[in-house]
Structure formats: structure tokens, C-alpha cells
Amino acid sequence: QVQLVESGGGSVQAGGSLNLSCAAAGSIFSIDDMGWYRQGPGAQRELVATVLSGGSTHYADSVKGRFTVSRDNAKKSVYLQMNSLNPEDTSVYYCNAGVRTAKYTYPGRYWGQGTQVTVAS
Predict the structure, then answer these.
(1) What is d(CA 78, CA 68) in angstroms, rounded to the nearest whole number?
(2) Rounded to an integer, what distance in angstroms lies between the CA atom of residue 79 and that of residue 19?
(3) How far apart are the two ends of the chain, measured CA to CA in Å?
């Protein structure tokens, strides 16, 4: 089994910053991509940012220039530094990872439990 444990959500005023962390644990051979999605009230879950094992990153247009995704492969962790937050960023943020539990296997997709981020105007 693989678990993704998130931390770092909370409430902040518009213009503020928050940093999210997510650590993977369990039966892990390797991790391909790691990243963050978010889901606001009544909305579909959407991609925020991803980072590949080699460090390549991809961001949603709405967060480019404000959010930074990074990972520590040794710690099996991914981070999301969020700056210049605005009320539209209010969502539950989910950690996501493509994890191989053994060599020569396809990666399974795993999700964290979600952490609430609330930005007040």
C-alpha cells in the first residue's frame, strides 16, 4: 500500500502565502510524477502543478508566477509554495503521485486526503 500524507493548509488573507507538503510512504519502488490538484466547492478537480522525477515542472495558467512546485526525491516528498494568494485559490488541495510499487510495473495513481486552503478577501 502507498499513502500520501499532506500538511500545511490553513487560512490566510489575500496576498498572503502558504506552503503545502506531501510525503509518500509505503511499498514504493519509485515515483514518477508528483503534484497538486485542487477542488473548489461545486467544481471539478483541476491540476495545479506537477513535477517529474527529473525536475521538469508544469503549472496551470492560473497559478503561473505565483506558485512553485518542488520535490525531494530522497524524502519522497513534494511541496507547493503558494504566494500572492487570492480568494479564487480557496479549495481543497490534493497531493497526487504516480508510484511504482515494483520494478517493471506500471505506476499506480495515488491521492492524499486533501488539505483545505482558505483565502479571505
Answers:
(1) 11
(2) 7
(3) 40
pLDDT per residue as tens digits for the range 11-32: 999 999 999 999 999 999 999 9
Q: Is 13 exposed, middle or buried (0-12, 13-18, 19+ CB in 10 A)?
A: exposed
Taking the CA atoms of 34, 2, 29 and 110 in sequence, report the sign of the dihedral they define: negative
Q: Per DSSP, which regions of the chain are E strands? A: 2-7, 10-13, 18-26, 30-39, 46-51, 57-59, 67-72, 77-82, 91-100, 108-111, 115-120
Residue type, 111: W
**Residue 47 β-bridge partners:** 37
Beta carbons within 10 angstroms of residue 25's beta carbon: 12
Q: Using one digit for the tens of pLDDT, what is the confidence trace for 31-55? A: 999 999 999 989 999 999 999 988 9
Q: Which residues contact 54 (CB under 8 A, 6 or more apart)?
A: none
Phi, psi of 9 (to 5 degrees): -70, 180
For residue 68, count CB atoms less than 10 angstroms from its CB and return exposed for 0-12, middle for 13-18, buried for 19 or more.
middle
